[in-house]
Every structure is written in C-alpha cells, then in structure tokens.
Amino acid sequence: QVQLVESGGGLVQPGGSLRLSCAASGFTFSRAAISWYRQAPGQERDFVASSFNAGRSTNYADSLKGRFTISRDNVLNTVYLQMNSLKFDGTAVYYCNAQTEHDYDYWGQGTQVIVYS
Predict the structure, then answer these.
(1) pLDDT per residue over 76-106, tens digit each?
(2) Whole-number Å distance between alpha carbons of 9 and 115
(3) Which of 84, 92, 87 is nearest to 36 (CA)?
(4) Which residue of 21, 81, 90, 92 is 20 to 30 Å from 63, comparing CA positions?
C-alpha cells in the first residue's frame, strides 16, 4: 500500500523558513519522481518543485527558484522541501506527489503552511 505522509507545516512570519518532509512507502522510492505542489485557498493546485533521477535532477517553479530547495534521502525514503524567505503567498496546503516507475500517481494528504504577520 502506497503512503505519502507530509509533515512540517505550521505558522511562520514573512521572511521565515520552514522545512517540510514527505515520508514515502509502498513503492521503489529511488526510482520515483517526487514533487511538491501547493494549493492556496480558492486556487488551483500549483507545481512547486520536483526531484527525479534518484535526486540527481531537480526542477522548480520559476517564481520559487532560489528560495525553495527540494532534496531527498533514498535510504529514509523521504523527500524534503526547504522553504526560505517565505512570503504571504506561501500560505497554502502543500502536497507531496509521487510518480512511480510504472507511471502510477499518488498524493499525500497535505500539510498546511500559514504565513502571517
């Protein structure tokens, strides 16, 4: 059974940092593309960042380059999203997505991030 469990969300002030984690199980983690998406209230779910080729390759939404960093630990089967210099538009539910080697697509339940002053 595939599971993706996000954690690390919370309250943060503008300019602050948070690190999100996504613990995965039930598939061959190192062979999967793992991505983060976010969904702000009343908005569509947007791409944030992805890690593929066992972590050798990454991709980011243009607006987040330089502030967000995706990384993964293929032993712990966990992917991380380090978010620095958070802005008010960072308020969203952040979701972990896995696209497995067999092209199956899975989502976690999300973790809430609120940027407030």
Answers:
(1) 999 999 999 999 999 999 999 999 999 999 9
(2) 10
(3) 92
(4) 21
Res 90: pLDDT: 97
- 105: CB partners within 8 A, 6+ apart: 97, 98, 99
Tokens of 113: 């991030």
Q: Write the CB contacts of 47 (distance below 8 Å, at least 6 apart in sequence).
A: 35, 37, 61
Identity at 89, one-letter amino acid code: D
DSSP state of 85: S
d(CA 19, CA 23): 13
